[in-house]
Model the fold of this input.
Amino acid sequence: MIQIRNLEKVFKSPAGHRVPLKVTRRSAFDILVFAVAMAAPLQSQTIGPLPDTPPGRRLAELIAIINAGDYRSVRAYAESTFSEEFIGGAIDERVDALMRLRAASQELTVVGVQSSSPERVVAEVANRLAEVHQALGVSVERSAPNRISMWYRGPVADRGAPRGAAPPSEGEVVAAMSAFLDRLVAADAFSGTVLVGRGDSILMLRAFGQARRNPDTANRTDTRFNIASVGKLFTTVAVAQLAEQGRLRFDDPVARHLGPEWMAPDLASQIQIEHLLTHRSGLGDYLESDAMLRATAPARALDEYRPIIRAERPRARPGAQFSYSNSGFIVLGAIVESVAGRPFSDYLRERVLGPAGMAGPSDWPRDRAAPPAPDFATGYTSRFSAAGTAWSDNTRRIAAVAPSPAGGQYASAEDLWRFARALTTGALLRDSTWSAMAAPAPVRGGPPTGYGFEVQRRGEERIVGHGGSHEGIGAVLDIYLRSRYTLVALSNADRSAFAVREKFASLVLR
Done:
């Protein structure tokens, strides 16, 4: 068995975070989290040190090199031990990801093994900075020298609450969250706003860090952040409303609502609205298309995406398996336009955002030379080198990407709080529709999901919401149906909102 404390020699003399080629860089973070969340419960639990197997040894090395935190050592290890396909010509990104994990944890300690096979191991590790347990794992190539072909991190497998354990009080949750956030900010590991609510009351709303680093401008509780894929929930509600009105059905094929200018007829007859909502259409990510990567200005209307969507062919048979798709939500937006007979953005404003009482969701102020901080937060990503850590902003990338049915709107924490309240009080959907949308959907090969919502069962609790991320963007909206908590975490430094999500779950579900 391998003990982490004896690994100093391993990372000083390593043997000779790219995702598989079909996974885009934009979706990689979420896919890795989903992979661990789904895979860990599949095999029997074995608590103890890491197994003396190729993946066990590689994971031990990886943890040791992360804990050391030396950029040169981390880079040398990645170059010599990550497979060529995993690196994929992006060694800087792979090294940055490891260094960010070090910054977000300070130290990782193995406390158990969640699953193990000859080519893969997933361990439960203690994160010293966040004071939570997380899953961390690796897959390795079959033949020697068994280079790392993937690494994973995410939440640990659900064990449920201890028998007889009293739930924490609201005061205990708020105090623990405040102390946790203060630690993260002191370590420069979080910038953003966090809201904790329960029922119809806001228990905590705090802002941290900088909306802009030059000039130095602080985030405020009303600062608007890019919410990335959390915006998919607005599209989901729009589709569900039209279904309530009998103007579409979830089993409608795309061909019933869109013409061949959007999708080849053979494909449009196979893909159903339900497939789009549950990421089973087989479509990919329009943001990774050549046209979008070359774009210098944002799209002004959904029709500008038609050539991109029309050129896509599914990666899998429609309905067969989970494959996260931004393109699928563009198609949903086009269906809303077609059925409602008005621009998608108009429908959203009149029927979703307005009735929810959301004052702030909007687009980046592109007609100005710079965003008027603190009204809008600029996103920052940490970059590492032997000289130290630097922060780069995402302004250039964001300038060419418009909010869409796939997400990317700007909203404050209170905006998303109001949206959550509107969902759970019947202001947007009938109770029966909301219950159906928030129920787990029958999806093979993917994370727990509902109809447009992420759905997790943790013991007796069900958590419904969505996360979103990109460079310098992290956004989380989680609605705890049983305990009636709501968490909103919005960050503009790396993807640090997800650490807040994990910590909150560890407190409420303990």
